[in-house]
Every structure is written in C-alpha cells, then in structure tokens.
Amino acid sequence: MLKQIAIIVAFASAASGALAQDRSIGTYMAYLGPEDLVNSSGTRLNSAAAIVAQDRANFHRFGVRHAQDEPDPWFASRGLRMAILDLVQVSNTDARIIVRQGALVAVTVFADPTGQMTRMLVQIPG
C-alpha cells in the first residue's frame, strides 16, 4: 500500500512539474467578430477553440482583420493554426460568450523549455 501511494505521489509531482515548466512566450489581443464565428464555408462554429483558430486563419490567410486584432508570430502556417484546437484553454463562461456573440479576447501562448507550444489561455478582459 505504501509503495502504491509513493508511486501515485511521484506521478502527481511529475505532472505538476511539467505544467510548471511551461512559460508564457507572448500575448496578443483579438476581436472575435461575426466573420470569425463561421468557417470558410459559412458554417456556424460551436466551440471557442474553433473560433480562435478561424480568427487566426482570417487574420493570416484571408486578410480579414478587425481594428483590435493584433498580429502574432506563430499562426501564419495552417499546421500551427490547426494545433489551436488542442491548445485553447478558456473558462466555461468565456467560452459561452465567445460562441454566442464573439468578444474581444486576450490570448496568452505558453511553451515548454524546448519551445513546443503547450497551451493557449483565452480570456475576455475585465
């Protein structure tokens, strides 16, 4: 029993240590407007992560930019934009607002020590 507890504690420590090792590599602001709430085919998007990804596609590929949109150095490539779907972390409240109507958001990108992106924290300021 003590051995099992020691193993569980070791795994928990390793997992929390891995999260603690990622660091912010930058932030940008984006207005998630009506053009970002639908995909390129016009289908309504139903997740905050998909909307954030569409915003970056609109910004980098299609030239659809809102006055509050800021550039980012990461998402010019389609491959990295596709990764957004797995990286976004957003509160349930903010996600509901984003999906319902869009919003101005602050996006903080995190990476591990090797530079691999680990997560994107998406927050509605205020």
Question: How would you concisely characterize the structure shown here?
Answer:
The protein has 126 residues and is an alpha+beta fold. The protein contains 4 helices and 4 strands.
Describe it.
The protein has 126 residues and is α+β, with helices and mostly antiparallel strands. It has one domain. The chain contains four helices and four strands. It has helices spanning 2-21, 48-62, 78-87, 92-101; strands at 23-32, 88-89, 103-111, 117-123. A four-stranded mixed sheet has the order 1-3-4-2.
Q: What overall geometry do the principal axes of the alpha carbons give? A: globular
Low-confidence sequence ranges: 2-16
Count the DSSP helices. Answer: 4
Number of domains: 1
How many β-strands, per DSSP?
A: 4
Task: Report on the biggest sheet.
Answer: 4 strands, mixed
* Strand order in the sheet with the most strands: 1-3-4-2
The N- and C-terminal alpha carbons lie at a distance of 48 Å
Strand-residue proportion: 15-25%
What Rg is obtained from the alpha carbons, in whole angstroms? 17 Å
Structural class: alpha+beta
Helical content class: 40-55%
The helix/strand order is: HEHHEHEE
User: What's the pLDDT, averaged over the residues?
Assistant: 89
